[in-house]
Structures are given as C-alpha cells and as structure tokens.
Amino acid sequence: MKFVIYGLPCAGKDYLLSMIPFIQHIKGSAWLNAQCNNKFRELSSEEQNNLRRQFIKHINSIETENVIVDGHYAFPDNGGYRLAFTDNDSDSYDVFIYLDTPADVIHERIQSSEKNTIYSRLTVSDLQAWRDYEVSGLFEEALRRGKEFILLDNDIDSIVKFMKGLADGSVLTAPQVSRINADKVISAASGKTRIILSDGDKTLTVEDLTKSVSIPEELKVHHAFQGDRYTTYQFWKVRQPYASLKDLDDRYAPALSNVHFDKSILKDLSKIDGLKVIVTAGLEDLWSKAATVSGVMDLAVGSKTNGLSNMSQLGKAYLCRYLEDAGFQVIALGDNMVDYYMLMEASKGYVIAHAKKNASLQKTVLAGTKLKQPSYNQVKFDGVEEVVSIHDDLE
C-alpha cells in the first residue's frame, strides 16, 4: 500500500515518520532536490512539475509492500494558493493522510524555526485558511477517486498503533470496509433492485443508541470528532475501548430495551419495497440487534467493536457508490455530516433533522444540494425541499 502524508510546515511530519519505521519512508523533498543540485525552489513551475512526475515514476517502481511519502499539496501564492498536487499523485497513492496540527501550534513553531522563515509573516488565521484549503482539496480528490483520506491528530501513541494496523492489514481502509459490506448487502438483496441505506443514531432513533451503551468513563475517548473529523482514524480511536470490555451483550440489553425509534420514519420506510439496511458509524453488532427490534430494518453494517473495521464518512459514501455501480437504486437517509456524502451519492437522499439540528449539515444544505426531507418530521432543516413522505416521493 502506498501512503502519502501532508501537513503544513512545522506540523510534525518528520517526527511522526520517525516513529513509524515499519513503513518505508521516501523523502520527497530530498529526492527532488537531489535531481537539481538543491535548487528545486528556483526552478520554473513546469520544471518542478516534470521532476514531480519523475518522482512518482520512482515511487511506482518501488516493490516494497508499504511505502510512505511526505508530500506538499499547495503553497500560499499572491493571496491564493499554488497547487503542487497533481493527477499523478492522485493516481499513485492509496491513502492520503493529513497531519492536522492546530494552526496556533504551527504558528508558534514557525516563529522559532530557522528553515521556515518564509512563512513567518503568516498569521494563525492565514495558517488555518491554508489548512482548510488543503484538507478540503484532498478530501474531495480522495472522494472523486475512491481513495482513503485520513485526518490525524497529535496523539502519537494512537497514530503509531493505527498505522501499524493499516500496514499489516488488520485495520481496513474505507474502500476495503465498503467493498466487504457491499458484498454483504448484495448477498442479502435476494433479487430486490432497490436498497434503502439509513443511518441509525438520531435518524431512526430519538437518542444516540451507541452512546447510551454504558462504558467506564475512563475508557471514553473525548472530542475525537471535534472539527467534523469523521475519517477512519477517528472511528478506530473511539472504538478501541470496546475491545477491552468482555460483557458487551449485557451492556447492550438496557440500551436496546429503552431505545425509542422514530415511528413516523419506520412507518414510511415499511411502505417501500426494497432491502432496508442500517449503515452506522456506531457498533454493528448493537445495531444488528436494533434492526430486529425495529421490525422494519433487515440488517445492519457498521463498525466492529474491535475497531479493525470502521464505517467512516467516506465508508458510507463508497458503500452507496458500490451498490449504485452494481445496478441498484439506492435511497439514503441521514442526520449529520457523517452521512452527507452517502446522501449525495444516492439516487435520492433525505435529511432527517432532530431536536438539536446538526449545525454543519444545516450550513452545508443551505449552500444548495439535491437533498429533500419528509414534511411529517417535526424538526426541519432550513432551505431543504419538503416531501409528503419518502414513500410517496419514490412513486
């Protein structure tokens, strides 16, 4: 597998790479400079791009099972950004990684850096805007190409464990997880041509069923998703505590006995002819039991309790894409940004608002999308077309 890692100057990529020696590291900048007597920055844009293409050929010729390259996505340039990322990069790497170090930390490091003085005039806001540009661009490129995109925090111990899992194949990427689950769904379809993919927590239920499972406070991972980070790494990290619990079935029972399904949604879905699948970034085995309790949903796919297989934001989108590519009409429901790209991939996507409307999704749908919402839902997203029911809208 070929990895590439991005991040702003002084993000800490060099240190992180030194902590994962089990993946062969190819120093991109060093290779490029070696080809031009350390004058890469003095070359024209065309000459730089030619060298980058040669570098990609070099990377593709390496037969080592796992390789990681430190890359550059873009540079500030006259009030905008000059893109260093190319189609060759997009073609060659399986996993795009971004070391998401806070902008204020980077600003402080740059001020005391001797080799990054070129960026010393950038403010924290400038650095944040640069970061946002890179993260957005890399995510969209990964989504377009069906690749994995991962945002990392600065928890080095967790990152090393996670990267070991990716390197040895015990932790699966979003495309791998989605392929496995697409096969599972297709096998269960039994001749049906329509598949309904619905998020679980706060879409089908009033409460967050996964969070209602009691686990010791000291095992909880707080703020992993802060800043709308919904990549495989975040879900892997949050699932780690469950692997150490030996009495999960006992913990599931109270949550399942007190679950409150949205009866209007279930009634609507019950009228639709198709395989009804819960797609959850929560716990798959818990939601498989909840599917039975619902009396409407047929099965559930999601994250494993050991954290080795996780349904991320991209995972949901790719599952929908793979099913559409297999010839199914896919209808999708969801309530927050984890679901958004799945909804956009579907033939028809429906947003389901709840008492505390997801602010990020509200902002996104206001920007304009094809999504709709059922009028019977008591809470509504602003600026989204209403339909009498999902069932009627499909007729």
Do you know the CATH topology of the largest domain?
Answer: Rossmann fold
Q: Flag low-confidence runs.
A: none
Roughly what fraction of the amino acids lie in strands?
15-25%
Average of the residue pLDDT scores: 93
Q: What is the rounded distance between the termini?
A: 45 Å
Biggest sheet, spatial arrangement of strands: 2-3-1-6-7
Strands, total number = 14
Can you say what the CATH homologous superfamily of the largest domain is?
Answer: HAD superfamily/HAD-like
Structural class: alpha/beta
Structure, explained:
With 395 residues, the protein is α/β, with parallel strands linked by helices. It folds into 2 domains: 2-168, P-loop containing nucleotide triphosphate hydrolases (Rossmann fold, 3-Layer(aba) Sandwich), CATH 3.40.50.300; 174-394, HAD superfamily/HAD-like (Rossmann fold). The protein is 44% helix and 16% strand. The chain has helices at residues 13-18, 28-34, 45-61, 87-92, 103-111, 124-145, 156-168, 174-189, 232-243, 248-257, 263-270, 284-294, 313-325, 337-345, 359-366, 390-394, and strands spanning 2-6, 24-26, 67-70, 74-77, 80-83, 95-99, 148-152, 194-198, 275-283, 299-303, 329-334, 348-351, 372-374, 385-387. A 5-stranded parallel β-sheet has the order 2-3-1-6-7. A 5-stranded parallel β-sheet has the order 10-9-8-11-12, sandwiched between helices. A two-stranded antiparallel sheet has the order 4-5. Helix 12 links the parallel strand 9 (275-283) and strand 10. Helix 5 (103-111) packs across helix 6 (124-145), helix 8 (174-189) packs across helix 13 and helix 13 (313-325) packs parallel to helix 14. The chain is globular, with a radius of gyration of 22 Å. The protein starts with a strand and ends with a helix. The mean pLDDT is 93.
